[in-house]
Amino acid sequence: MAPSDLERAAREFYVALAAVLSGDSEPMLRIWSHADDVSYMGPFGALLVGWEPIRASWVAQATQRLGGKVEPEELHFYDSATLGVVVGFERGTAEVEGRPVRVDIRATSVYRRENGRWLMVGHHTDRLG
Asked: Would the pTM of this model clear 0.90, i.e. be above it?
């Protein structure tokens, strides 16, 4: 069975996340809506609302070049004509101060159709354990 548009959008997010871990924020910046109503609650605990603080966060994360690899697991997809939600886990490793750190996160991503394309409008993560 061919992946849905929402599944492809989620796959793009994880490709973009890998790019951020290697130091390149551009793919991540392309998959987000640039609207004022976007929100991001990353694993660092802050609630960011609006495109500019979210853009700045992804750029800052990329400059850290954390390395490692984070993969999605057990993704579930729910969509309507204009909104899509993806829930699941993000698991892998990143490097913090030169040491590998386990990534074990619950994640919810919200997408909105803008100009015929799914763009991320919300991403919320919680660390497990």
From this structure: yes
